[in-house]
Amino acid sequence: MKIDINVSADLSLVKTQAQRAEALGYDGIKIAELEHDPFLPLTLAAECTSRVELMTSVAVAFARNPMSMAHLAHDLNAFSKDRFILGLGTQVKAHVTRRFGMPWHRAPRQMREFINAMHHIFDCWYQGDRLDFQGEYYQHTLMPSTFTPKNSQWGRPRIFLSATGPLMTKVAAEAADGFIMHPFSTEKFIREVNLPAVAAGLAAVEMDRSDFEIDFSPMIATGNSDQEISKAIEIARGRIAFYGSTPGYRMVLDAHGWGELQTELNILMKQHRSEEMAMLIEDDVLAAFTIVGSPEEVVDEWLQRFGDLIDRTSFSAPGLDDQQIGSIIERLHRADQS
Prior knowledge:
Layout: E1 2-6, H1 14-24, E2 28-31, H2 39-48, E3 53-56, E4 59-60, H3 66-79, E5 84-89, H4 93-99, H5 107-127, E6 133-134, E7 139-140, E8 158-163, H6 166-175, E9 178-181, H7 187-204, E10 213-216, E11 219-221, H8 226-244, H9 250-254, H10 259-270, H11 274-279, H12 283-289, E12 290-292, H13 295-306, E13 312-314, H14 322-337
Parallel strand pairs: 1-2, 1-13, 2-3, 3-5, 4-5, 5-8, 8-9, 9-10, 11-12
Antiparallel strand pairs: 6-7
């Protein structure tokens, strides 16, 4: 199992954080597309590291087009010497259309075509194929040699797709190299919904599971004292409430018979009553979405729930020191080898 860490996209902080992550033994660093672009800080991280993989987790696909995304991915992968993973996600319709001013179609169908268009572009760049992709939403039929990258010795970047529901999960298995599960998920949902969709997608393209990576980072609440753990639990309740208010994630709650909770949370979210939202997250809901306990207990539960399901994960805990984090990473690596 590969162990990653999410780091800041702040250009003034990313080098220090990336070097620390590599020294601690992490396998990769991830940067999300939130208040900053993720590609620039990953470039700085690539420059100051030599081993860790570098992943956007995630970049908003529909805010760009397949050609612009292919150039970004190629340049970062070549510069980092084949250490880059392009993690893609859709975001939600309101952000794509109203924040980025880009078109939104049928998301799973559009995403499949987006990734397939990138594969055709990469086939042109790395294999010399003629570029002739004509899809429903994207057309790429012109690639003069003047605009073709020449530094192709490191090959094509890997593409991971973030998904929650079965339709997008199947797209990930059919079109991408890996699948990033949203942290608002549970062991039950993964086993009953995600894994069958992955199996169906891989079967459709005759791809082995061993050639496909599944990435899931569960929410954790840990610390060195009961007080620290209690504080982490309250933060987790807030995260669960925030994610649970989103209609697109209702399916996860439905899997447990908690669908009406999404309706209640959504009403409170629209009224900006965030404290009351967190109060709706009862202990059984917390336990399904969050691993709670001391660092040792968290690792035990982590491996019990997800050790046979996933290929990579992320771990960080603000209250733990570097020695504790290093020990946890080492233990997770050892468990993977046993």
